[in-house]
Design goal:
Blueprint (H helix, E strand, L loop, with lengths): L2 H4 L2 E2 L5 E4 L3 E6 L2 E6 L4 E6 L2 E6 L4 H22 L2 E8 L4 E5 L2 E5 L6 E4 L4 E4 L5 E6 L2 H14 L9 E4 L13
Antiparallel strand pairs: 1-6, 2-3, 3-4, 5-6, 7-12, 7-13, 8-9, 9-10, 11-12
Length: 177
């Protein structure tokens, strides 16, 4: 069995987990998430923690045990603490502005780029060159942050573009005569 799959998931105060035959529902202060349950993994709620075991000895069931455990752990963490991704805009005149559920980006194109946030994902702009994407669903937050970055990915010569706050762009040397 996988090492991650062996560890139980602790359920913090204020988080409710409902196990059904085909679905797992997690509710907390930051929202509610649900996921389809895999038939290869058996989930049990014991004394405020969830334990995961493989139904049979196949390698696929073993792999799914660790996967399901981590996905449920991300759901529990998301509804209790939440997830966030920070992006920085590097470039002269590059600006971002959040208006409700829309993010307006001015990143060197002839027109501004508007990105509409889906349900459950919030966007903030602490300054004109910083964007913070927040939400309970880790996959959604990462996907939206990736879509924002894809509008103008950092280029390797001057480093201009949209990058994650912890991303390090390797700069290329200019062509020499």
């Amino acid at each position: 069995m996988s090492r991650i799959g062996k560890m139980p998931v602790a359920i913090p105060q204020g988080v409710e987990v409902a196990l059904k035959a085909d679905q797992i529902d997690v509710k907390g202060s930051l929202g509610a998430l649900s996921m389809a349950q895999n038939a290869l993994v058996k989930i049990e709620n014991k004394d405020g923690s969830l334990s995961f075991t493989a139904v049979d000895a196949s390698s696929e069931a073993n792999a799914m045990t660790g996967t399901m455990r981590q996905m449920v752990n991300n759901m529990v963490t998301g509804v209790s603490k939440g997830f966030e991704k920070k992006l920085n805009l590097i470039g002269v005149g590059f600006r971002a502005q959040a208006k409700g559920t829309t993010l307006n980006l001015n990143v060197g194109f002839s027109h501004p780029v508007d990105i509409v946030m889906p349900e459950g994902v919030k966007v903030e702009t602490p300054s004109q060159t910083e964007v913070v994407v927040k939400g309970a669903d880790r996959q959604r937050v990462g996907q939206i942050a990736s879509e924002i970055r894809a509008v103008r990915p950092p280029e390797p010569y001057k480093g201009k573009g949209i990058r994650y706050s912890d991303e390090r762009v390797v700069m290329k040397e200019a062509k020499k005569k």
